Model the fold of this input.
Amino acid sequence: MGMISIIAAIADNGAIGRNNQLLWHIPEDLKYFKRTTAGHTVIMGRKTWESIGRLLPNRRNIVISRSGVQIEGAEIYGSLEAGIVAATESPDGLVNHTNTSTQIFIVGGGEIYSHALSIVDRLYLTLVHTTFEDADTFFPHIDYSKWKEISRESFLRGEKFEYPFEFVVLERILNR
Done:
């Protein structure tokens, strides 16, 4: 099975959204997301899919929904577990042995992140160094003792964003 990762942008107070929208517009983060997930499988909740409003190009789109919604071009599964199992198979239903390097990215939202945090191998986090008091969606608590940092890229501010932010990649420490 390929590696399963979470990719998320998180404010200092854990905030990730409000009214089904991101709290910020950071062009560098959008480029990072696109570069990191391109060519891979993305799994998202229905509300996240609705907030994006379209399929993500150059990626296999899997949407988790219990409502039986139909989305042309996306694969719909009733649970995160079923979506992950499907993601490890090729779209024709055969176990995908030829492309085991394909990563699976959990791209949101809050509920899906909460279910996925205990099973993912890696976290691709954009740490946004400010707080948003009016947020209504938060990333689950991360126990940093269970993760080791493998890379960090820091920015004092964005081209169009006034606060510092960092791209941090963490890998789960396997219990020995």
